[in-house]
Predict the structure.
Amino acid sequence: MESKRQQQFAKLIQQDLSEIFQKDMRSTFGNAFVTITDVKMTPDLSIARSYLSFMLTNDKQGLLQDIREKTKVIRGILGNKIRNQVRIVPNLEFFIDDTAEYAAHMDAVISQLEIPPLKEGEEIED
């Protein structure tokens, strides 16, 4: 379980990374829309694991690789934004957040289930 400090720091990193991806590096990724869905901090606050969601792109792995190659640049921009608020700028790790795709898959699976209706006088067994 994350401490309150980890959660606050993660929220700060998430907001600033979102701004970086939406404003500062928008042209770098073409038409792709990158969203920071979650940030998890290690207990010593030295590593920020960022989970990304991509829209308007077919090559998610390629875009993730491009982002990973630009990690130093992104960390430098982040450092300039938060330098007065933190002592150490965390190292950044990026991962694809596939929870939305997983939820859509589960919805499709559930919608394909054929559940017969109850007959008169039948009850659901526990």
About this structure: The first strand starts at residue 33 and ends at 41.
